[in-house]
Amino acid sequence: MSETNTAASEVAAPHRYTAVMAADIEARWQDFWDAEGTYEAPNPNGDLAGDPALVAKPKKFVMDMFPYPSGAGLHVGHPLGYIATDVFARFQRMTGHNVLHTLGFDAFGLPAEQHAVQTGEHPRITTEAAINNMKSQLRRLGLGHDKRRSFATIDPDYYKWTQWIFLQIFNSWYDTEAQQARPIAELVAQFESGERAVPGTRAWSELSAVERADLLSEYRLAYASDAPVNWCPGLGTVLANEEVTADGRSERGNFPVFKAKLRQWNMRITAYADRLLDDLTELDWPEAIKLQQRNWIGRSEGARVDFPIDGERITVFTTRPDTLFGATYMVLAPEHPLVEKFTPDAWPEGTHDVWTGGHATPAEAVAAYRAQAASKSDVERQAEAKDKTGVFIGSYATNPVNGEQVPVFIADYVLMGYGTGAIMAVPAGDQRDFEFARAFELPIHCIVEPTDGRGTDTSTWENAFASYDAKIINSTGEGVSLDGLGVAEAKARITEWLAGQGIGEGTVNFRLRDWLFSRQRYWGEPFPIVYDEDGIAHSLPESMLPLELPEVEDYSPRTFDPDDANTSPETPLSRNEDWVDVTLDLGDGRGPRKYRRETNTMPNWAGSCWYELRYLDPHNDRKLVDPAIEQYWMGPREGMPHGGVDLYVGGAEHAVLHLLYARFWSKVLFDLGHVSSPEPFHKLFNQGMIQAFVYRDSRGIAVPAAEVEERDGAYYYQGEKVSRLLGKMGKSLKNAVTPDEIAAEYGADTLRLYEMAMGPLDVSRPWDTRAVVGQFRLLQRLWRNVVDESTGALTVTDTEADEDTLRALHKAIDGVRQDLEGLRFNTAIAKVTELNNHLTKTGGSVPRPVAESLVLLIAPLAPHIAEELWRKLGHTDSVVHQDFPVADPAYAVDEAVTCVVQIKGKVKARLEVSPSISDAELEKVALADEKVVAALAGAGIRKVIVRAPKLVNIVTA
User: Fold this and answer.
1) Dihedral of alpha carbons 30, 32, 34, 37, sign
2) Other beta carbons within 10 Å of 563
3) Mean pLDDT of 589-595
4) Phi-psi bin for 358: left (phi > 0), alpha (psi -120 to 50), beta?
5) Of 50 and 951, the one with more pLDDT
6) Up-side HSE of residue 132: CA atoms within 13 Å toward CB?
7) Which of 130, 345, 429, 941 has a CA-to-CA distance to 758 between 20 and 30 Å?
8) Domain 3-163+606-686 matches domain 299-510 at the CATH topology level
9) CATH class, range 894-956
10) pLDDT at residue 312 above 80?
11) 3-class DSSP assignment, residue 852
12) Domain boundaries, the chain
């Protein structure tokens, strides 16, 4: 429509629902909601106290995954989940629930720090500006958040409690007998009393302060240790395994990552591996996410076996101890701490040339191979298709079951992150070992009888033979024989024998590694830890929290040549000596003493490990959370045995990192009695992604999508043909559409409806700006069904609705109710549209009860227009807390449904029957139908299958 025609239309219909009107309506109601505190959720210890009606209300805690406030602002893909949770939360309010729904900001992030490094501007300034911009964009969408409960992780009042939780973890140990965390003071008491023996020959009282600290560090749930880490010189920091891409580069910045040994803080998440696995069963999560967590934790049962070497031993973990007689060599991870110890000065006599890698000494060979392995990611090292590489370290170990001397190698396909970092290699039964043995001319012993006809002569084999069903052969040694046994029986017998010999035992192993918790950055939570002159770590007392970040002149960790692995971290905090070196009285009775602060900071995951708890009680400066409040919102209840948030919506990309870490923190806090819920999130829903077309020129560079023209099925930018591919939406891809643009052109309610109507919430879908107008027209028709566009007067009447309209209404109510409860927002909108179209087609005025029900139906989806129409319909209270309509069963079902009658799979008749007809009655009606009788033509009936009310299938003899 031209601008002239549009202007003329608006003069003729001055009360038409337009973008200008939508903007006015939306701004007014957003102001109203803020002023009235419409979305404020009362807590049980204050607002709910003494109000039986509120106490009796069921509760619903609805959450989005923490957003990171980007300086680029939001594009239309970002609010998809936020709108969905808002719709669900609004529906829950209207069905009688006390709903907690709010949004905070995960604000310690690398982008803000990188900006600070480049510009010298404090990361807090840019982060707070980004938060304010995001708040403005989200407010425009009409999201019903309880703003009193919002916060950012960079607020000292918030990270005070992040630091406090760290100290609870630091001052705890995991009691494997009780299967829970306990205060470290209880462990100290056990050592002091002798209830628990101190390793070695000395008593606790005989240990020095440093020795005591080292011993406790072996138990603490948060501990510092020298361990292999992922060192990224280009970023100047270490990274968790999850922050390294499959090709061995940093997730942020795409820099090379190397293995290095550094002293870092770790979280002993491995202590909770079994509980993290077991408790997944009771969570209402997508099975795909549960599977990812199970795979990441990686539980496997097997045996620990000791291989003697030079008067000591190398311990391996194997899931197949029944194949011990087939172990012909050993492999250590290149980083294994025993490699240097067992690497002699010279090659032993008879060493094969292929084992040495061409090096003159074992030390040279090991050093060269370690450098080579350090440049590869774990994924690269374990790739099945790659050539097998390794070097002999110059020593032999003894196979404990047959006394054979087996050479010890290092090879990159063995990782320190799994098992003990050492394997017994059984080339006959493992393809990687088989390929390695072939490459290094190592023996291959057949110890499982092949069932594929290949025979037992391994020199003729082309690959390994692995079987859990075949019989064990060639496996008899001094004191034990496995010959003729099945795998399960052989595993049990050899494990029992190993334990009896004191050289092994049955055990469980996990792929999960302890969580690397240090970062060499400025922009993160400072550790509430100081070190005394002996290097012993001490926790700050709670009275000294929060420990705030100091000012520094340079925000960057020292970075290095990205390819230089021979470097080590230097943190920004370490350069502020006035902050680092302090004299403190820690309240431990020793008075003021000199200490040195920890100069690493916590990873950006720390703040998101517990933020659901802060939403509950955001202004509590005395406790992490009031127990009554936590119990009310998150405590276990029927159907939720582990408690947690009622609905948590976010991307599937957080399947392992955030979700696993948050679960770990929740379990520690639960064990220590701080919370009643051992799980943070009961129901998890992963929303899909809004995608957009990316257009690229002949150089592969993205061009502005908004300026691309389509001609004859091809796409052109400034006259040049460009390619088109569906992908992510983003500023760098020049295809981002902001919610502000759409809200300005159509209104926020239209944007909300379009995003919810695009398809199922858990499926990715392409953005199409041209299609947005369809939802705008729905709202215009809705408006016209209630308001006269010329006069602005109500058009509804106080007459009774006819039966067709009542049926349309109650079917819509029934369907929309079920769809909103099941997060099927696209089909809910379709049902509202169908009802609205029915009212439009009748041509007359809409009965008031029908109009009011229609407004209530669309209120969770398009709250601004619903508020406006509700007010125009004569109501003085907000639509937000109105009761959602309830369908009358008499009208919610069809008067009749069509039943298909099949004979031999072919349709022979269609019957109009009652939707409540029974199977027996439907069978009787079908067999009496004239068309069915004719089609049977006297044939005998063998079976009648009835699926009332829609199907009868007759099988003839």
Assistant:
1) negative
2) 11
3) 95
4) left
5) 951
6) 6
7) 130
8) no
9) alpha beta
10) yes
11) helix
12) 3-163+606-686, 299-510, 894-956
pLDDT band at 2 (very low <50, low <70, confident <90, very high): very low
CA distance readout (Å), 723 to 100, 630, 689, 709, 715? 46, 53, 22, 12, 7
Cα-Cα-Cα-Cα torsion 695, 698, 699, 704, nearest 10 degrees, comes to -30
In one letter, which amino acid is 872?
K
pLDDT per residue as tens digits for the range 526-555: 999 999 999 999 999 999 999 999 999 888
Res 3 pLDDT > 50: no
Query: Is residue 820 helix, strand or coil?
Result: helix
Any alpha helices (H) in 690-747, and if so which ranges?
A: 739-746
Count the alpha carbons within 13 Å of 97 in the hemisphere toward its beta carbon: 18
**Choices 3.40.50.620, 3.40.50.11900, 3.40.50.300, 3.20.20.70: CATH for 3-163+606-686:** 3.40.50.620
Dihedral through CA 918, CA 923, CA 924, CA 929, nearest 10? 120
Query: Can you give the length of the chain in residues?
Result: 957
Q: Are 742 and 751 in contact (CB under 8 A)?
A: yes
The number of beta carbons lying within 10 Å of the beta carbon of residue 879 is 26
Residue 235, H or E segment: none
Tokens for 626, please give them: 């009031």
Strand 237-239: give its sheet, edge to edge. 237-239, 222-232, 258-267, 515-516
Q: Are the beta carbons of 300 and 319 closer than 8 angstroms?
A: yes
CB-based contacts of 729, cutoff 8 Å, min separation 6: 75, 76, 77, 690, 691, 692, 735, 736, 737, 767
Over 70: is that where the pLDDT of 463 sits? yes
Alpha helices in 520-582 (DSSP H): 577-580
For residue range 469-514, what is the model confidence (pLDDT) as tens digits? 889 999 999 889 999 999 999 999 999 999 999 999 999 989 898 9
CA dihedral over 400, 401, 406, 411, signed as positive or negative: negative
Six-digit token string for 213: 């600290």
pLDDT digits (tens, 9 = 90+) for 787-840: 999 999 999 999 999 999 999 999 999 999 999 999 999 999 999 999 999 999
Other beta carbons within 10 Å of 818: 14
Longest dimension (CA), the chain: 106
Give the C-alpha separation, 346 to 776, whole Å: 81
Look up tokens 């549009």; give the residue: 6
Q: SS3 of 122, please?
A: coil
Report the run of H or E that residue 57 belongs to, with start and end. Answer: none
pLDDT in the model for residue 1: 45
Contact 252, 110 (CB under 8 A): yes
DSSP 3-state of 7: helix
- Give CATH superfamily name and number for 299-510: Valyl/Leucyl/Isoleucyl-tRNA synthetase, editing domain (3.90.740.10)
Rounded average pLDDT over 6-24? 80
Phi, psi (rounded to 5 degrees) for 233? -60, -35
